[in-house]
Amino acid sequence: MSPVIPIRADFGKGCTDVMPLVERGQREVFCGLTGIIWLHRKIQDAFFLVVGSRTCAHLIQSAAGVMIFAEPRFGTAIIDERDLAGLADANEELDRVVDQLLARRPEIKLLFLVGSCPSEVIKLDLSRAASRLSAQHSPTVRVLNYSGSGIETTFTQGEDACLASMVPEMASSPVNAPKELVIVGTLADVVEDQFVRILNHMGIDRVRFFPPRRAQDHVPIGPNTRLLLAQPFLAETARLMQARGASLLVAPFPLGVEGTSAWLQSAATAFGVTPERFQAAVAAPMARAEASLTRAKLQLDGKRIFFFPDSQLEIPLARFLSRELGMKLLEVGTPYLHRQHMAVELAMLPEGTFLSEGQDVEKQLDRCRALHPDMVVCGLGLANPLESEGMTTKWAIELVFTPIQGYDQAGDLAELFTRPLTRRMRLAA
Ligand code: SF4
Q1: CATH number (domain holding residue 205)
Q2: Predicted pLDDT at 315
Q3: Residue having the nearest C-alpha atom to atom 6 of ligand 1
Q4: Which domain holds residue 60?
Q5: Could you tell me if residue 333 is inside a domain?
Q6: Buried-exposed string 360-378: b where 16+ CB fall within 10 A, e elsewhere
Q7: Do the domain assignments include residue 15?
Q8: Whose alpha carbon is nearest atom 8 of ligand 1?
Q9: Whose CA is closest to atom 5 on ligand 1?
């Protein structure tokens, strides 16, 4: 495994040694299929074919329904009871659906077969199906597979599984290739462009993003690669990229002014950027971002917030809300705590923050009700019942669908938290 490169900033100890409350009971989270909603918009020549049941088709359609403005780049091959009779039928059916799809959509260059959890799908060997179909349709179309099943993945883990399936396909960088920065995790195009401008201003010119906007834009990887994670839910992807020789830069996540600055600083340190050049590149956007938080801070300062585990963004969000907007953290729940990727975030959390990992939803609801927070961040399934009990909620899924990373989005991110409070105040007036 390649080294991990530390950043210069020292954030103290914070919650570094805190042991979270670990719960392994009933969970209320989306499955990994949900990631298709943002991934299909990012990789523009890819198609996501869910191999699943009618339930999976409904989930994807209702989660994405409002966002479809053209022919979607995802669909569901419904494997039902009829296919239980014999696996040969299911494979034939899959081949038939793929042939039809590729004949009708010649723009597709990368096809993901996405597994789900119905028992008839689990019996299908999708990795074998992907190899068979890849051999059949290469070089025009590559076929990969991953699981978005609710048994194996929660919500954002679907992106991790998808990106991890692409790592073995990445070309190896040539020996002695110059150092290159690879930013890992789906970001909105506009956010990528902002980061490129700032990094270029610092003198870091070799910057790539993974996943790329087009499947055909190959991102090479090797010992010259410096990885900067843009999303906190990419444990497996990062592990596989490190196994290919890339070095992971230690950083918090680029949420809020402080997180974005420290994230960029870690790249600057790895590429030998001088403090003066770093300052010149970040000073203006940083000042704009600080100013954009002023109004939200007035409204959020001192408000008490409770996070249910959902997207794995909870810890970085809690750090931003407490340090930059003065919110009080009652409980910060995360589906999974990756101590290495969260090391800086944990150090930046206020000492004594109550952390929980996993879920036992009824017990967590009891804790939440007892504390009666000013705001609850949770999944859609919990939001309506909690609202009806008089609590103010923020849908975690919105935080994944909205561009929130970087300086220019810091104000928008803060506003996502002021809006529910304003709405409740208006309802109460
Ligand atoms: S993958 Fe499983 S949890 Fe997700 S929609 Fe399909 S059946 Fe439901």
Answers
A1: 3.40.50.1980
A2: 98
A3: 56
A4: 32-153
A5: yes
A6: bbeebbeebeeeebbbbbb
A7: no
A8: 56
A9: 56
Q: Please tell me the distance from the alpha carbon of residue 21 to that of residue 25, in angstroms, as a whole number.
A: 12
Residue 360 maps to a domain: yes
| Close Cβ partners of 364 (under 8 Å, ≥ 6 residues apart) | 23, 308, 331, 333, 356
CA 127 to ligand 1 centroid distance, Å:
19
Cα 69 to middle of ligand 1, angstroms: 24
Pair (48, 107) in one structural domain: yes
pLDDT digit string, tens, across residues 406-421: 999 999 999 999 999 9
Residue position matching structure tokens 């070095």: 247
**pTM given for the model:** 0.93
Q: Out of 28, 34, 55, 61, give the residue to mutate to test ligand 1, the one with the largest number of ligand atoms within 8 Å of its CB.
A: 55
Q: Which residues line ligand 1 (CB under 6 A)?
A: 31, 33, 52-53, 55-56, 59, 116-118, 148-150
Q: Which atom of ligand 1 is least distant from the CA of 31?
A: 4
Ligand 1 atom showing the smallest separation from residue 58 Cα:
5
pLDDT in tens, 317-338: 999 999 999 999 999 999 999 9
Structurally, how many domains does the chain consist of? 3
Are residue 93 and residue 104 in the same domain, yes or no?
A: yes
Is there a single domain that holds both residue 336 and residue 283?
Answer: no
Let me know if residue 327 belongs to a domain: yes
Query: Is 233 strand, coil or helix?
Result: coil
